[in-house]
Amino acid sequence: MTSTTHPPLDDAARLAVVHRHRDDIFQIFAALGATLIGVLSDESTLRRVDLHGAEFVAEFPIERGLGNILTAEVALDQLLGFDTFIHELSVECEESRIARKDALPL
After folding, report:
1. CA-to-CA distance for 66 and 63, rounded, in angstroms?
2. Tell me, what's the pLDDT at 92?
């Protein structure tokens, strides 16, 4: 079996895929009691250099457990067809402040 390597999607292409699945994405976060803030922009200093997918910014309720983040990432990976990462904002710190500022709304 041969595999095809696709070039990483740029910011616009990732956002297009995310917007196409916008309602499903909101449902994933809502089902886990989380509040989606947006998608992290390519220009953010928080962007992971090893990830060529989408990075979401969201708040998860601590009382429901942070294991929900992994559940959401797996569901998003399957829905969107590329890797995702969630910047969680339950703790107020400099990283959370930057993530909020650099999040693009859906």
Report:
1. 8
2. 78
Which amino acid, 13? A
CA distance 56 to 104: 9
> What is the longest distance spanned by two Cα atoms in the chain?
48
Q: How far apart are CA 8 and CA 82, in angstroms?
A: 9
Digit-coded pLDDT (tens) for 29-86: 999 999 999 999 888 999 887 787 899 999 988 776 678 999 999 999 999 999 999 9
Position 3 scores a pLDDT of 39
Helices (H), ranges, 1-93:
11-20, 22-31, 67-80
Our CA angle for 50, 54, 55, nearest 5°, is: 80
What residue ranges define each of the domains in the chain, with the CATH number in brackets?
Answer: 11-104 (3.30.460.10)
Please choose, from the candidates 29, 39, 44, 45, the residue with its C-alpha nearest in 3D space to the C-alpha of residue 85. 39
